[in-house]
């Protein structure tokens, strides 16, 4: 029944349009003409709003996609800028020794373990040699090959040690970690007869072929004597835990 009624109305409307009866009614009755005009204007206005709505939706979607890409570029730009600034600061402070040497820039990749900030993976390829890590012209640790991977052992690591001179008398010793105070380093195996004073500067000796002679390590802040040696506790100059770049030194034997 509903289908028949709908079909009848459709045929009736078609006949009205075919015989232009609607125009005749509009001419005879102004009221219907105004209704028709209002209907057409409303239809056109509504159609334009619908079109504008979908156009705005498409524009909003496009802008959102562009905004997402710009955010990605912004993150990449900030990351790259940070790396460049770190590298620029690093290069400004590099002092090369006036001897035959090979200097390489080393970048820290990540921690080896999250609970140990003094052991890091580095991007320098090493064989069996041990090389010194230098930051702002200060001794910052050592680098070595460990199970086929390059590892940096920073100052304070229990496995990080290298040869040094203490004070103007150039007393020999070995820098190691300090178990009692992680802010300090220990210089052990100083001869018992050696004269060591508070404030003495500690530099690398180069006798272990890890660093060249003269790289500054720190200053003596405490001294203890034992039956067979003296131990000096030093405040290191380098702050390696905050650095992303170091440089390494290797002697070139002609």
Automatic annotation (TrEMBL):
Database matches in InterPro entries: Cell/Rod_MreC_2, MreC, MreC_beta-barrel_core
GO annotations of cellular component type: plasma membrane
UniProt GO BP: regulation of cell shape
Signal peptide: none
Span of domain Rod shape-determining protein MreC beta-barrel core: 157-240
NCBIfam families assigned: PRK13922.10-6 (NF010507)
Alphabetical list of PANTHER family matching this protein: CELL SHAPE-DETERMINING PROTEIN MREC (PTHR34138)
The protein's name in its UniProt record: Rod shape-determining protein MreC
Provenance organism: Arcobacter porcinus
Gene giving rise to this polypeptide: mreC
């Amino acid at each position: 029944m509903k289908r028949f009624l709908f079909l009848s109305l459709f045929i009736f409307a078609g006949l009205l349009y075919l015989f232009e009866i609607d125009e005749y009614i509009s001419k005879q009755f102004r009221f219907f003409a105004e209704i028709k005009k209002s209907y057409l204007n409303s239809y056109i206005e509504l159609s334009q709003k619908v079109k504008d709505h979908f156009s705005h939706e498409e524009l909003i979607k496009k802008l959102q996609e562009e905004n997402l890409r710009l955010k990605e570029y912004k993150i990449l730009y900030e990351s790259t800028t940070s790396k460049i600034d770190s590298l620029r600061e690093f290069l400004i402070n590099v002092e090369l020794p006036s001897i035959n040497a090979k200097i390489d820039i080393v970048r820290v990749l990540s921690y080896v373990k999250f609970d140990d900030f003094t052991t890091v993976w580095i991007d320098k390829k090493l064989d069996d040699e041990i090389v010194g890590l230098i930051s702002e012209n200060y001794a910052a640790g050592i680098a070595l090959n460990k199970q086929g991977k390059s590892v940096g052992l920073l100052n304070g690591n229990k496995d990080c040690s290298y040869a040094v001179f203490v004070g103007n008398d150039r007393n020999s010793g070995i820098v190691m970690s300090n178990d009692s105070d992680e802010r300090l380093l220990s210089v052990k195996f100083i001869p018992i007869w050696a004269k060591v004073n508070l404030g003495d500067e500690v530099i690398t000796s180069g006798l272990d072929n890890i660093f060249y002679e003269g790289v500054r390590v720190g200053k003596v802040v405490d001294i203890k004597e034992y039956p067979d040696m003296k131990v000096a506790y030093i405040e290191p100059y380098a702050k390696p835990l905050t650095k992303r770049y170091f440089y390494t030194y290797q002697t070139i034997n002609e």
